[in-house]
Specification:
The structure is a single chain. With 283 residues, the chain is an all-alpha fold. The protein is built from 13 helices and no strands. It has 2 domains: 136 residues, Four Helix Bundle (Hemerythrin (Met), subunit A) (Up-down Bundle), CATH 1.20.120; 88 residues, Helix Hairpins. 66% of the residues lie in helices and 0% in strands. It starts with a helix and ends in a 33-residue tail after the last helix.
């Protein structure tokens, strides 16, 4: 029993922490494997796009890429099982953000092998690169990210009110544009504003200053409304930034470590922490 717990602690230290040589070596190797996997997926998706029937060389490279992808998937699967084994509460890790991402990183390949679909979804592995902040001990960036998340959460009520106002403005502008540009009013048979949802789509694209150009007002009144909406979009785009910036300035900066709790697998503890601030287990 004691040897089993010692093995768990050693695996946890290597897989979940970057404070030791082997822990950092493992994480850097994992990052390289993830990058290679993403590159292989992108290259595999390019082969069917080549004009004409695939040549023998293209088929050979496709088989090699798929074999390489399977090798990496098996390695990621073993890693995922070891992560579940090393933590005190496997279900907590499995339902955590990184746990779900790690599972989604291996499922598409197996779905591809069983049903022939979903291989491109393996690109979700790119999310695992977020561990780079912990691996290279970029604790200042990690701390800033935590402070930014806390600021956004504190400003959530203001952001929700802002989004509600924007949605209402888009709805009203879409309905107004439908009335001004719709073929039932303008008499233009080729009008693309065929319904209020079409007008709302145009209002969303216009207010966010994206401007695809697939829906364009033709009447003078429609152009006046478009001008007003564009100016309104430029004015509103800075509002949520002000909310978050104000909360961010109120957030007290903290120095945190990259160490992970063995019990609840959470990170972001203070440098002088002796116990986990989430579950009170000894660090």
């Amino acid at each position: 029993m004691q040897n089993n717990q010692k093995l768990k602690n050693q695996i946890h230290e290597i897989i979940f922490e970057a404070d030791t040589f082997w822990g950092k070596f493992f994480d850097i190797s994992l990052l390289i494997a993830i990058v290679l996997s993403v590159v292989a997926i992108c290259l595999e998706s390019m082969i069917p796009e080549i004009p004409g029937s695939p040549t023998d060389v293209e088929v050979l490279w496709l088989e090699r890429l798929r074999f390489f992808e399977w090798v990496l998937t098996i390695g990621f699967t073993v890693e995922y099982i070891l992560r579940l084994y090393a933590v005190a509460r496997p279900s907590r890790y499995a339902l955590s953000f990184y746990g779900v991402v790690d599972l989604l990183a291996i499922l598409p390949t197996f779905l591809q092998g069983l049903f022939g679909v979903g291989s491109s979804l393996t690109i979700v592995r790119a999310l695992r690169l977020l561990r780079i902040f912990r691996i290279f001990k970029l604790v200042n960036l990690l701390s800033s990210a935590e402070e930014l998340g806390e600021a956004i959460w504190k400003a959530r009520s203001k952001v929700i009110v802002f989004i509600s106002v924007v949605v209402i403005a888009i709805t009203i502008a879409g309905a107004a544009m439908y009335e001004l540009e719709g073929n039932h009013r303008s008499g233009m048979a080729d009008s693309k504003f065929k319904s209020i949802p079409h007008g709302m789509y145009w209002a969303t694209v216009t207010m966010t200053t994206v401007g695809y150009g697939d829906l364009v007002p033709m009447t003078q009144a429609g152009k006046v409304l478009a001008t007003f909406l564009i100016l309104l979009g430029y004015s509103l785009i800075i509002v949520p930034t002000g909310f978050v910036s104000a909360e961010f300035m109120r957030t007290r900066p903290r120095r945190i470590t990259t160490q992970s709790c063995r019990s609840c697998i959470t990170e972001g503890h203070d440098l002088d922490a002796k116990f986990c601030k989430f579950c009170a287990e000894a660090m």
